Amino acid sequence: MTAATHDVVAIGNAIVDILAQAEDSFIEEIGVAKGSMQLMFSPEEADALYAKMGPGREVSGGSAANTVAGMAALGSRTAFIGQVADDQLGQVFGHDLRAAGVDFGTAVRGGQPTTARCLIFVTPDGQRTMNTFLGASQFLPEAALDRGLIAGGAILYLEGYLWDPEEPRQAMRAAIQIARDAGRKVAFTLSDVFCISRHGGDFRALIAEGLVDILFANENELLALAEGEDFEAAVAKVSAQVPVLVVTRSDKGAIAVAHGERVAVPAEPIEKVVDTTGAGDLFAAGFLHGQAQGWDVEKSLKLGAACAAEIISHYGARPEADLKAVAAKLG
């Protein structure tokens, strides 16, 4: 096997987040479950909801893109494959990702629809409720894959959110095969219970076929995947099928079961939760960076918790503090 050119190559939705503060009553008014994600299926629907937003803040996002941006901030070599349109938001997304130190060279898509956007409402308790118009990102074709880039990444990282549209789903299946043929690992994040409700069968098949080496989930996603209500039973069921299972549990910390060995860490203390957008993404960034550095699972989990704590201390899903300094505190 040749030496890896990147620690992680990620494939995901290329999205620009638009964040605004909102009261719980507004979340009820628009009919979205608080703390969840729903899809918007037309630019008109997105425009109508955008018109109801208070003053917003634009920040480049996308789950897998947030993860590799966090890893780059930690010093990892990362790359991203995702599709934007030839418009202003597409330019914003590409600029922000490259400025963060992530290799990004996917060709833009001409014409409609526009670059994907996610309208995020943050309530006073820091919970984020997401409303996503997938736009150009949902048409990522297999032809857009940089096969050499994928084969050169030590880990291929995929987000469950992008599994929903047919075209990128096929692209990700092809990417998994490229990574496998090159002897690389595949990491997968379940992303949201919504994704499991629509594609749980596909996810379970990937796991059963041994195509996932590292699986990321939060507690609710794990229960949905395992089709059960008992956390310990779900951990036992899923961890028996993947080499490494990582589960975040909000204020209860996180666990990992790696090759049958279980490790748990507490949540990193924080004065105030401002915005939970990107918490899971940056947890994955810390864990994967630790693994890329050859750290043990416990230390990797601790870095994940520390990175998640940094993200939820401010608005937006891209780090504002020096993550290298955060990592250095772990010794």
List the keywords:
UDP-N-acetylmuramoyl-L-alanine:D-glutamate ligase, kinase, kinase activity, PfkB_dom, 22% strand, 331 residues, transferase, single chain
* Average pLDDT metric: 94
State the total count of DSSP E strands: 14
Flag low-confidence runs.
none
Helix content: 25-40%
Largest sheet: 9 strands, mixed
Strand content: 15-25%
Helix/strand order, N-terminal first: EEHEHEHEHEEEHEHEHEHHEEEHHH
Backbone CA Rg: 18 Å
| CATH superfamily heading | Ribokinase
GO molecular function: kinase activity
Domain Carbohydrate kinase PfkB: 57-319
Family: Belongs to the carbohydrate kinase PfkB family.
Protein name: Adenosine kinase
Note down, in words, how this protein is organized.
- The protein is an alpha/beta fold and 331 residues long.
- A 9-stranded mixed beta sheet has the order 6-5-1-9-10-11-12-13-14, sandwiched between helices. It has a 5-stranded mixed beta sheet with strand order 3-8-7-2-4.
- The mean pLDDT is 94.
- A hairpin with a 5-residue loop joins β7 (116-122) and β8.
- It has one domain: Ribokinase (UDP-N-acetylmuramoyl-L-alanine:D-glutamate ligase), CATH 3.40.1190.20.
- It is built from 12 helices and 14 strands.
- α3 (63-74) crosses α10 (279-292), α7 packs across α8 (219-226) and α10 (279-292) packs antiparallel against α11 (297-311).
- The longest helix is centred in the middle third of the chain and has 16 residues, at 166-181.
- Helix content is 39%, strand content 22%.
- InterPro entries: Carb_kinase_PfkB-like (IPR052700), Carboh/pur_kinase_PfkB_CS (IPR002173), PfkB_dom (IPR011611), Ribokinase-like (IPR029056).
- Residues 57-319 form the Carbohydrate kinase PfkB domain.
- Keywords: Kinase, Transferase.
